[in-house]
Amino acid sequence: MIRDDIKSALVTAMKSGDKEGTGTLRLVQAAIKNRDIEVRTGGAPKDDDTLVTEVLQKMIKQRRESADIYRKNGREDRAGAEEAEIAVIERFLPQQLSDAEAEAKIREIMAETGATSMKDMGRVMALVKERLGGSIEPARASSLVKSALS
Fold it and tell me: Of 46, 40, 53, whose CA–CA distance to 3 is shortest?
């Protein structure tokens, strides 16, 4: 399970004196605990790894946006720190699909659903999220679906 991998990586980072890695992994654990609390009131995903992957993808998205903002404002040091955190978090995500693989799977889903226009985007995205889940970032999936439907 991804959750166990994160815990063992945190212990390793603490023992080796990796302060940046330790800090990032503690942030990851806190975000996962917050998500666990949110899930108590709603419907939980079928798989724990799915929940953790969603949290990790959200954290990566936030950090990419922050790094872009820092770069626009001339703060390369802070942008570099955000990208270092992204590198630590990405180690725990499942292997990501290449663009060609993702496009092929999206085309299969489109053929299955009969999607031909942007009106069908919601149905296609729901199936993409269900079937491809953690193997493709939602923003990337959305842009690939949009280009395929255009």
Answer: 53
